[in-house]
Amino acid sequence: MYVVGVTVFVKPEKIKDFKEVTLENARNTRKETSNVRFDVLQTENDLSQFFLYEVYKSVEGFQNHQKTEHYLKWKETVADWMAKPRQGVRHYSLFPADADWETK
């Protein structure tokens, strides 16, 4: 599996809007055949910081996600809401094994 973790820092006045459009993007991403998981987390001691945890069946699946209408809409919508640039880190999952992931 291919895992993407993104830390997002949102302007305080845009937190509510960010949550709304990000949850919509996450729900649409879950409909993609290559997506296995999409978690949206809000940091306990800094409510303007979020962590997006995304799991795809392959690098290509993630690359296809980045071309979807809903992702491009999300990216454009939230661009001006960032307090600082998003920080993304990409990973290959070692455990659980690919066959052990629930895919839908």
Structure commentary:
The structure is a single chain. With 104 residues, the protein is an alpha+beta fold. The protein has one domain: Alpha-Beta Plaits. It has a four-stranded antiparallel beta sheet with strand order 2-3-1-4. Helix 1 runs antiparallel to helix 3. The longest helix has 16 residues. 14% of the residues are buried. Keywords: Monooxygenase, Oxidoreductase. Pfam families: ABM (PF03992). This is Antibiotic biosynthesis monooxygenase. One of its GO terms (molecular function) is monooxygenase activity.
- The overall strand count is 4
As a percent range, the share of helical residues equals 25-40%
Under CATH, the topology is which? Alpha-Beta Plaits
One letter per element, helices H and strands E, the order comes to EHEEHHE
The main β sheet shows up as: 4 strands, antiparallel
Q: What's the end-to-end separation, in Å?
A: 14 Å
Low-confidence stretches: none
Keywords:
104 residues; four-stranded antiparallel beta sheet; Alpha-Beta Plaits; alpha+beta
Question: Short summary of the structure?
Answer:
This is Antibiotic biosynthesis monooxygenase. The protein is of the alpha+beta class and 104 residues long.
List the helices and strands and how they pair.
Layout: E1 2-10, H1 15-30, E2 35-42, E3 49-56, H2 59-65, H3 69-78, E4 82-92
Antiparallel strand pairs: 1-3, 1-4, 2-3
Helix pairs in contact: 1-3
